Structure to design on (406 residues):
């Protein structure tokens, strides 16, 4: 098979991203409310969901190293199997133990899924076109992911409104995930990435060690890793707590989920727009200034989301948060890829994902506990403050001179 050109790699990357994130869109409006609807307390919902972050923290680096040694598509196939098992358990979970098992399997899925697809695209596209500007393709990827999540969230809200059951979107997400796993046949591996399982596993420790040393020795990568940690801590403020706040304002989980479905769809359309304009903004003010300003704006919007009265105020803040969130992903990714080579690309992506998931686990535990002890609004404001605190760390991540064109 002849090598893919950059355009061919791009459309496959975007298609697989859409199939990857559509199930997430189906889950976002209901994942917190599902546990509450099935008898869990808010603290139990946060604690069981935090299991995912712990599992990712344990597996992220080995699985990233595996993707750099065995290959991207075999690891993505393993991820699909773990994700399918996770959603199958989540569909029937009605106790804290079963929810914890579902999130444990989801952690395995996230660890395996983190990095290989993006690493495949970057390596394939740069091999075909060395001067390619990565922020354009990564921005398109974020936009496609956002639109897929929007469609999933809209469908999720409709399914809950029609059935009154927050569990129905889980079954739909399961079906889409199976389809996306089958579509991995579209992902040809570069010959250099292939190898025996035994050789790949024995090469993982060295690859992981090299990736960690690279992050530790690079001021830029260390700064970006710090951003990922604080980003993870702050995200539950608008992902996990907004559904709870809307349920409080609308009178129950089902009503909150029905409202959040269309709201999430709109938010991810806005997120896609943010991703689309990010390269334009970065081209005029620079990657680092754009990233710093975006993180400050995102933190301020989350704080506003917690302080503004009523569902309209909360959702207005949510839309602004997602506009900046969509723009942040391609900016962050472009800075990261400017400081890492192909041999450690998936591993370094996994380092960032590891600390992001660890931060997410800490945020879920801390912010849900704070919400239970005080108010949901206070916890949302605290999460926004943490997001804003990550902004100065981008100052360490100025692109290396030789890679600024990427």
């Amino acid at each position: 098979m002849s090598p893919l050109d950059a355009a061919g790699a791009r459309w496959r990357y975007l298609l697989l991203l859409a199939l990857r994130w559509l199930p997430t869109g189906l889950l976002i409006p209901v994942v917190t409310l599902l546990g509450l609807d099935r008898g869990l307390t808010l603290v139990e919902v946060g604690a069981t969901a935090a299991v995912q972050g712990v599992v990712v923290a344990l597996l992220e680096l080995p699985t990233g190293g595996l993707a750099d040694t065995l290959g991207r598509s075999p690891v993505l196939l393993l991820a699909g199997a773990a994700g399918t098992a996770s959603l199958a358990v989540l569909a029937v979970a009605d106790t804290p133990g079963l929810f914890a098992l579902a999130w444990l399997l989801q952690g395995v899925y996230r660890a395996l899924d983190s990095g290989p697809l993006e690493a495949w695209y970057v390596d394939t596209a740069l091999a075909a076109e060395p001067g390619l500007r990565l922020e354009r393709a990564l921005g398109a990827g974020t936009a496609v992911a956002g639109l897929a999540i929007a469609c999933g969230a809209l469908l999720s809200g409709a399914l809950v409104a029609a059935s009154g059951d927050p569990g129905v979107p889980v079954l739909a997400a399961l079906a889409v995930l199976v389809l996306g796993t089958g579509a991995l046949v579209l992902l040809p591996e570069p010959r250099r990435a292939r190898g025996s399982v035994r050789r790949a596993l024995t090469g993982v420790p060295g690859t992981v060690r090299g990736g960690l040393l690279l992050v530790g020795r690079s001021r830029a990568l260390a700064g970006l890793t710090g951003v990922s940690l604080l980003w993870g801590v702050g995200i539950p403020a608008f992902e996990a707590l907004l559904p709870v706040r809307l349920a409080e304002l609308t009178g129950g989980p089902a009503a909150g989920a029905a409202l959040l479905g269309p709201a999430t769809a709109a938010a991810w359309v806005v997120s896609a727009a943010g991703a689309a304009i990010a390269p334009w903004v970065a081209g005029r003010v620079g990657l680092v200034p754009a990233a710093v300003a975006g993180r400050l704006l995102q933190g301020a919007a989350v704080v506003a989301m917690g302080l503004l009265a009523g569902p309209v105020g909360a959702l207005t803040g949510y839309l602004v948060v997602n506009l900046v969130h969509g723009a942040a992903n391609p900016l962050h990714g472009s800075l990261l890829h400017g400081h890492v080579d192909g041999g450690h690309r998936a591993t370094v992506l996994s380092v960032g994902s590891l600390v992001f998931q660890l931060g997410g686990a800490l945020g879920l535990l801390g912010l849900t506990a704070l919400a239970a002890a005080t108010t949901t609004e206070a916890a949302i404001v605290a999460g926004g403050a943490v997001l804003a605190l990550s902004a100065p760390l981008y100052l360490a991540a100025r692109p290396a001179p030789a890679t600024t064109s990427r």
Remarks:
- The chain has one domain: 6-188+195-403.
- DSSP finds 17 helices and no strands in the chain.
- The chain has a mean pLDDT of 80.
- The two ends are 27 Å apart (CA to CA).
